[in-house]
Amino acid sequence: MSQEAINQALSTVKYPGFSRDIVSFGLVRSVDFKAGRATVSISVTTNDHSVAAKIRDDVEAAVTALDEVEEIEVNVSVNTGKKTPAPTAGPSSPGKSPLESIKNVIAIASGKGGVGKSTFSANLACALQDLDRSKKVGLLDCDIYGPSIPLMMGINRRPEIEGESIVPLENHGVKIMSMGFLIDEETPVIWRGPMIQKTIQQFIHNVIWGELDTLLIDLPPGTGDAQLSLVQTIPLSGALIITTPQTAATQVARRGAKMLEKTNVPILGIAENMSYIEYPDGSRNAIFGEGGGQSTADELSTELLGQIPLDPSIREGGDSGIPLTKSSPDSSSAKAFLSIAEKLMSKLS
User: Fold this and answer.
1) Cα 248 to chain center, whole Å?
2) H or E segment to which residue 32 belongs
3) Is residue 86 part of a domain?
């Protein structure tokens, strides 16, 4: 029997709570078959040991159903999310994970595209840096298919390479890494799941982040490969969910949050983007409706950390490469980002 036949059987085993299988998620480490005996090795990152047990049972059922398999051994390696020795990058000491020098790792998620998550991430990173200039902030753009952080942070050059590691670029006091630094602007990224997982792992373990107080990770929309690869690769301090007020956005945001909860990622709060237009006389127009962010926070038993207005200057800052929190720090919109940054740091402390 070929390993391909066993892998085909393994591709029918779904990761608990997801529609994707363990092969496409890159959890299968090795497959062997000799004299009727199949041996399968699986690696899973989770704090819920029932997940590993479920995968083991499902793998045994799928492989033993094959005609030539008389006996099966399934080895499941479980990483509980604690920081364990990993390949070093740059200044990290031997046997030490490159993330040991990062105090807080926060995922910025939405579930749905078009809610301004990347714009929010860029402004929040700058707000965190302005909150305390002695603190060091990083921003990792994990939107593999549509990286926009390089434009929004005003960087259009390639990063340097030291040995086998990448030196992140820096602007506005923030260290930045993005797929956008490695491809041409007009080049589409057409990748399958395992390639996405490998790239995210390289962004974590082969980038010289150095000492950071906070690393923000801008996730792509959805609940697929990139999100699961991330939570399997690194221990997150928590996630901030971005939504707009309307139901079409809040419903998807809740699904995205619940996906993170299933992988034991704490939800730190909700931020409502494009909440209203504020006119010169101080009046507001909630063109996308009201209450969506608060209702989402209530359903997820978390806090609404703040509301960001629909402000043309935020868009202008993103297009120019100077986030509003840097170009107009005294504006009401910039102060809204700063308030969210303060609440976020208060939660983590």
Assistant:
1) 22
2) strand 28-34
3) no
Strands 37-45 and 165-167, sheet pairing: unpaired
**Spatial separation of the C-alpha atoms in residues 75 and 212, rounded to whole Å:** 36
Percent of the chain at pLDDT exceeding 90: 42
pTM: 0.70
Gap between the Cα atoms of 217 and 208, Å rounded: 15
CATH number of the CATH domain containing 145: 3.40.50.300
Residue pair 104/141 in contact (Cβ under 8 Å)? The answer is no
Q: In the chain, how long is the greatest CA-to-CA distance?
A: 81
The rounded distance, in Å, linking the Cα atoms of 325 and 128 is 10
Q: What pLDDT, in 10s, does the model give residues 115-136?
A: 989 999 999 999 999 988 888 9
| Residue owning tokens 């009201």 | 290
For residue range 272-308, list pLDDT tens digits in order: 999 999 998 989 999 999 999 999 999 999 999 999 9
45 and 125 co-located in one domain = no
For residue 216, the cross-strand partners are 106, 139
Rounded to whole angstroms, the Cα distance separating 326 from 131 reads 12
Other Cβ atoms less than 10 A from the Cβ of 131: the count is 17
Same domain, 126 and 18: no
- Kind of pairing, strands 160-162 and 165-167? antiparallel
> CA dist 313 to 30, 174, 281, 308, Å?
52, 21, 17, 12
Q: Are 83 and 100 in contact (CB under 8 A)?
A: yes
Q: Note whether 191 and 285 are same-domain residues.
A: yes
Side chain identity, residue 328: S
Domain count, the chain: 2
Determine the structural domain holding residue 14 and report its residue range.
Answer: 3-79
